[in-house]
Amino acid sequence: MVASVTKTIRANVLIAAKCARKPTLSWRHLYRSGVIILFLLNLLGCAIMNRSVFLPKKEISASPLLNSIPYQEIWFSARDGVRLNGWYVPGAPETPLVLFFHGNAGNLSDNVEYLNLLHGQGFPIFIFDYRGYGKSEGKPLRENDLYQDARGALFYLEGLGWRHERMIFFGQSMGSAVALQMALESPPSGLVMEGSFTSMKEIVKHISPFAYYTVGWWGIDIPFDNLNKIGRAGVPLLLIHGDNDTLVPVEMTRRLIARAVAPKSLHIISGGGHCDVFMWDCSAYLAAWSNFLRSIPQQIAAMPIKHR
User: What pLDDT score does 46 carry?
Assistant: First the structure.
């Protein structure tokens, strides 16, 4: 009986010892856990930054009819099938078409005064909303989404007989990044970039250093890296910027023009803010366009600009 009790005590002691042991983690387990945590943080950071980058507006607040300009509402497909909405404003015969890539906040209806200005110079214009903006379907999640939309616009226009060599790509702010990418893929007669920036990371760093150093420097997967692209454009280039732009510092455009290849020109509008420079000095703005037209192919350079 004593032997039986002794065995029972020993068994209980062994069980207690096993239960008292602390679990140990190997370096391999710690490494794997660290990789998983970093991966999840990266996904979270990218999702946060992506949602902050794209600021679509759904409401259509105006149309070219505000300035008694006739236009056609157009529906077409992005290259990945998303249904998009745009406007076509007719212009003078034998005049290059301006393919208009608007900026981030808002939609095509926020640019009717620009349409009025360009239409007044005889340009036919095609402007469209990226996915998620205005009446366009879908949702912008990544940089290539906007490129797919722009490729769809080019495909649609070329189906109507407009060749990219007879177009001027005009981009504002974020739209300038889309216009630049399209210029690399389908070189136009000329490229106009207004209020353009060097890269999305540098914009985030400028606007919110805290967001950049906590999430932005590793969480941004929407590069819009204009600085590294612009030297490969190889088409006549006009950069326009306001010297009072607080959203995109004018120094960014100066860096872009330094990296670009000729023919190139830079026009700084005194007092101008972000993509509102024509309202500050309309005559200087039109003069910049007029001088630019002289640097592109002869059939376009012969087109006069009507100064107001």
Answer: 46
By percentage, how much of the chain surpasses pLDDT 90?
67
Q: Report the distance separating Cα 271 and Cα 224, nearest Å.
A: 27
Query: Packing angle between helix 143-159 and helix 174-185, nearest 10 degrees?
Result: 60
Distances (CA, A) of 148 to 80, 82, 223: 6, 9, 16
Q: Burial code of 79-99, b = ≥16 C-beta within 10 A, e = fewer?
A: eeebebbbbbbebeeebbbbb
Q: Token digits for 257?
A: 């023009």
What is the C-alpha separation between 210 and 194, in angstroms, rounded?
27
**One CATH from 3.40.50.2000, 3.40.50.1820, 3.40.190.10, 3.40.1440.60 for 50-301:** 3.40.50.1820
Strand-pairing partners, residue 276, are: none
Note whether 120 and 190 are within 8 A (CB): no
* Cα 109 to Cα 99: distance, rounded to the nearest angstrom: 15
Query: Contact, 183 vs 156, CB < 8 A?
Result: no
Domain boundaries, the chain: 50-301
**Is the distance from CB of 242 to CB of 269 less than 8 angstroms?**
yes
pLDDT tens sequence across 44-98: 444 445 556 799 999 999 999 999 999 999 999 999 999 999 999 999 998 999 9
Query: Is the distance from CB of 170 to CB of 182 less than 8 angstroms?
Result: no
Q: Please answer whether residues 85 and 57 qualify as being in contact, where contact means their C-beta atoms are separated by less than 8 angstroms.
A: no
**Residues 96, 165: Cα–Cα separation, whole Å:** 9
**CB of 76 within 8 A of CB of 150?**
no
DSSP letter assigned to residue 157 = H
Distance of alpha carbon 13 from alpha carbon 97, whole angstroms: 89
Task: List pLDDT tens digits, range 7-46.
Answer: 544 554 444 444 444 445 555 554 454 444 433 344 444 4
